[in-house]
Amino acid sequence: MAASKFKIALVQLFVTANKSENLARASKLISQAAGGGANLVALPECFNSPYGTKYFPEYAEKIPGESTNMLAKAAKDNKVFLVGGSIPEEDGGKLYNTSTVFNPEGELIAKFRKVHLFDIDVPGKIRFQESETLSPGSGLVTFDTPYCKVGLAICYDIRFPELAQIYTRRGCKLLLYPGAFNMTTGPAHWELLQRGRALDNQLYVGTISPARDEKASYVAWGHSTLVNPWGEVVAKAGHEEEIVYSDVDLSYVDEVRSSIPTSNQRRADIYKLQDMSQN
Ligand SMILES: O=C(O)CCC(=O)C(=O)O
């Protein structure tokens, strides 16, 4: 029988412009998280490079490559499931914002390319057009652990509730979103979106941000968080580098779903959700 509890570590890494420093630091914090008892360790969006359209071409790598080789080794050395945040990936002349997942044997078990690119323009506040240099992914990705099935997406993807609903339909009890919200949308929407996705789908939602660097061209909000199926924040970082640990209690997912059985109360006769993804 699958274990009903496991420990997750959200690694809020301080990311700099120095890739090898980022990789070394990430590797050290993954070991620290494993030493702290985590079964599953997760890194932030763009953990190996600064976040910004001008940086993506400069830092992009093939998979496998330097960054994912480090992740594979760290997962194996520390015997953890490792969600490698995301990195700018180059493939076939295109760039993607890509998350990779490794099992405790160091094998790549999932690869997700951000599906919804972060293209926004909030007048006087923030304009960001990820599509200037990136291409979107075209598939949805879940992976299996001995604990539960996990759904994976990246940052802006959290704004699209259909994606989370599809992962829930596929049997996920935990959704993970490496992400880097900013000083405008962070305070307004970061926690609200996570609590919304968790409550709508009655599952755990974890987000993993880089630590805030006030000197960076894109200032991340921080506040990596875990929300439970009741919609409560159970663990939350500040904005500096830190590891946030929490137990994920899968029996609580079942309890909430049986107390308020929304998933059996849908009106398929008046609306429907369609999963068109091939993977
Ligand atoms: O949705 C937002 O407000 C922020 C999204 C973002 O920063 C990203 O997709 O990387």
TrEMBL record:
GO molecular function, one term: omega-amidase activity
GO cellular component: mitochondrion
GO biological process: asparagine metabolic process; glutamine metabolic process; oxaloacetate metabolic process
PROSITE patterns hit by this protein: CN_HYDROLASE (PS50263), UPF0012 (PS01227)
Catalytic reaction list: 2-oxosuccinamate + H2O = oxaloacetate + NH4(+); 2-oxoglutaramate + H2O = 2-oxoglutarate + NH4(+)
Sections of the chain in a coiled coil: none
Classification via InterPro entries: C-N_Hydrolase (IPR003010), C-N_Hydrolase_sf (IPR036526), Nit1/2_C-N_Hydrolase (IPR045254), UPF0012_CS (IPR001110)
Domain CN hydrolase, first and last residues per copy: 6-250
Enzyme Commission code: 3.5.1.3
Keywords: Hydrolase
Enzyme class: hydrolase
Protein family (similarity comment): Belongs to the carbon-nitrogen hydrolase superfamily. NIT1/NIT2 family.
UniProt name for this protein: omega-amidase
Organism per entry: Branchiostoma lanceolatum (Common lancelet)
